[in-house]
Amino acid sequence: MLGVEGLTPATFFVVLIASSGISLLFSIFGRGGGEFKLPFFVTFLTMLPFFDLATISLFGILLQGITMLAIYGGRHKLVDWPLAFALSAVVGPAAFLGGYISIGIEAIYLKLTFAAMMVVSAVLMLQGRTVSIKPGSFGVWHRKNPTGVEYDINLLLILVPVGIVALVAGMVGISGGALIIPICSILGGVPLSVAIGTNTLLILISSGTAFVGHVIRGTTPWALTIILAAAGVIGAFVGSNLHVGLKDRVLRVGFVLLLFAAAIWMILKAYLV
């Protein structure tokens, strides 16, 4: 079916619904959801190698990122464009490199590494810890988003961590938003809603460059890839529009719960698959 040997209609339907549902849920928090979607693909699309499943995941996240960016940046005006482009200059090359070199690395090590990083990130966000930022200090950037919210960003503290996350995320086959958003919020001092909105551009850059790195090194079942990505776009459109009605506290708690759930599932799949 769809050029994939062993793919049954029942399995295809389950994966299609899951792709849309996961995209809907994670788009509420400005994330690609690859840390959930990829393990789901690994569970049900067992006829395909992990590397190709990562490619499918990345393409879906790429189109989802475009959808979220249009809504978060256009309708909600929650994207800090200068910050997004500054971080993209780090995220793009790092994600491409991760996608390109991942073919020679065991999947279990990639999954466990990212899962550990998600747990640490969730704990810090749950505790509400942030780095103290002194306005006017070297490396501190004063920002004002289109809605009038003003804040100071410690750009020097977030560039290297964001680059490392993008590298590992590109290897795993996800966007890295699960960690980029907490880094911007905890280390950079970016308001959570703005960090979520700004991350939508980084999702596009990270998943796009990592996808290219995967495509040139492996095979891609294009029919299945495009259909699952289209289902994800529908979910992303609905989820992104639900975001604006949520309070900061709800966003923070929901984000932390998703981090813990994704980390646990990724750990389980690392040992069970």
Radius of gyration using CA atoms only:
18 Å
What is the quaternary state of this protein? single chain
Mean pLDDT: 85
Helix content percent band: over 70%
Instruction: Please report which band the strand proportion falls in: under 5%, 5-15%, 15-25%, 25-35%, 35-45% or over 45%.
Output: under 5%
Indicate the low-confidence ranges by residue numbers.
none
N-to-C order of helices and strands? HHHHHEEHHHHH
The number of distinct helices, counting runs of at least 4 residues, comes to 10
Strand order, largest beta sheet = 1-2
Shape: globular
Number of domains: 1
Separation of the first and last Cα atoms: 23 Å
Biggest sheet statistics? 2 strands, antiparallel
- Helix/strand-derived category reads mainly alpha
Number of strands: 2
How would you describe this protein?
The chain contains 10 helices and 2 strands; from the N terminus they run αααααββααααα. It is mainly alpha-helical and 273 residues long. The longest helix has 26 residues, at 50-75. It is globular and about 60 Å long.
Can you give me a brief rundown of this structure?
This protein is mainly α and 273 residues long. It has helices spanning 9-27, 34-44, 50-75, 81-101, 107-127, 155-172, 177-187, 192-215, 222-243, 248-272; strands at 140-144, 150-154. It has one domain (9-272).
Strand and helix layout:
Elements (H helix, E strand, L loop, with lengths): L8 H19 L6 H11 L5 H26 L5 H21 L5 H21 L12 E5 L5 E5 H18 L4 H11 L4 H24 L6 H22 L4 H25 L1
Antiparallel strand pairs: 1-2
Helix pairs in contact: 1-2, 1-9, 2-3, 2-10, 3-8, 3-9, 4-6, 4-8, 5-6, 5-7, 5-10, 6-7, 6-8, 7-8
